[in-house]
Amino acid sequence: MKVPHRLLSFLGEEDKFFIATHVNPEADAVGSAISLSMALESMGKETVLYDKDPIPGFYDFLPGHQKFRSSISSIKTSEFPLILLDCNSLDRAGLDNYLFKNSAVIDHHETVRDFGDIRWIVPQAAATGLMIFYLLKELGIKITKEIALNLYSAICVDTGTFRYSNTTSEVLRVGAELVEAGADPAYISNNLYETWSKERFTLLIRALNTLEIRNGLAMTFVTRDMCKKAGADPEDTENFSNFPRIMKDIKVSVFFMETADNQWKVSLRSKGEMNVAKIASIFDGGGHKNAAGYNVKGSLEFAKETLLKAISSKVQKPES
Known about the structure:
By secondary structure, the chain is of the alpha/beta class. The chain contains 10 helices and 12 strands.
């Protein structure tokens, strides 16, 4: 994977960086940002790590997670170069009201915006963590145990722990190198998948009890009241969208998470050739071919019906 020379020059010339990633962060965003921060600081640079939302507690096992901040009122962002990771627009990171000295984007999402003075966007990359791995190699940075753990976790989540169709021989070779550098697959897998709280598991049961299936499309939802009654947090719903996809006849799994009155975060997961990034783009969202999302205002029924209509139009209309 070729790293743009302009990006390497940018990282070498600037002395401090504001590193940000998207709202509702998952392991690819978190692990990639921490790894890049550690690498730049090993070069004598100053970094600020930012996410508008708190890092979910189940990522506390990632070394360096505590460096993230969700408040930047004391920072004059116009003095900082911005590095935007795992997304490619300011609004996706909740930074659309801030100015920066200059900017670089490192991302692998299929839905691309035009933000960034320097843009390294590789939709074919299995994870942003994979791109950061190659970037650190190009910079001559030693992959420490802490960096290896973060990057392996990042790649794990976006490849379904090396199960999805984006798992290539290249991805497996990088994974092996990260294990050699100190990443422990069993430790990471246990923390990612086997440390759920009772409250989170209770919420999953309630979400699955909302299951509705229509023509190979599985839909589930969680309301704020369901979260409250289960004693769970909204971030506990991460990965809920993947469970209905386990059924062999399901082509698309959709999860609706209520974020406010008549407002829903919609997560789409698909199998095979169904490109849910194109569906999400209809609603100004985005993502990958088999994993995407967007936000919608309206009742739950409105959110369902508009999505069904969008999927129907995409299925019936040949790809150009």
